[in-house]
Amino acid sequence: MDPIIRDLLLNIFIITFLPLLLISFVGEKITFINTRIQKVMINLIGIIYVLLCMSIPLHFSNGFSFDFRQILVIFTFLLLGYKDSIPFMVITLLYLFFIGSESYYTYIIIHLMIFMAVPPFKVIYQQINLTKKILLT
Fold this sequence. Notes:
Blueprint: H1 3-26, H2 35-55, E1 58-59, E2 65-66, H3 69-80, H4 86-99, H5 104-117, H6 122-127, H7 130-136
Helix pairs in contact: 1-2, 2-3, 2-4, 4-5
């Protein structure tokens, strides 16, 4: 199998598995758990999946590499909001720094733009029902 297709399928699996894991594992039972534990759990699951997605990028022939971490970042920011997504963003950017990406500063700007644009939609996202959440994510 071509390595690009293999890595693409693996990234798509990681992206689709996170929302399904959160919804099926936690689902409606999340309301019975302490809110602080909920946010720590969402943060940890999001960090694990973003690090997995960053560890397996798509490498193209001209030296360009790409991954789908922005989708997971947007999903985690929708669930957490501003204050609780700061550790997630810091750990993601630190891991990117340790990997040694050439476009580190570009990703800082992209993460800051996502950080400013996405969390205001948290209230709308939490008010929609479960089936619309699954379709949206």
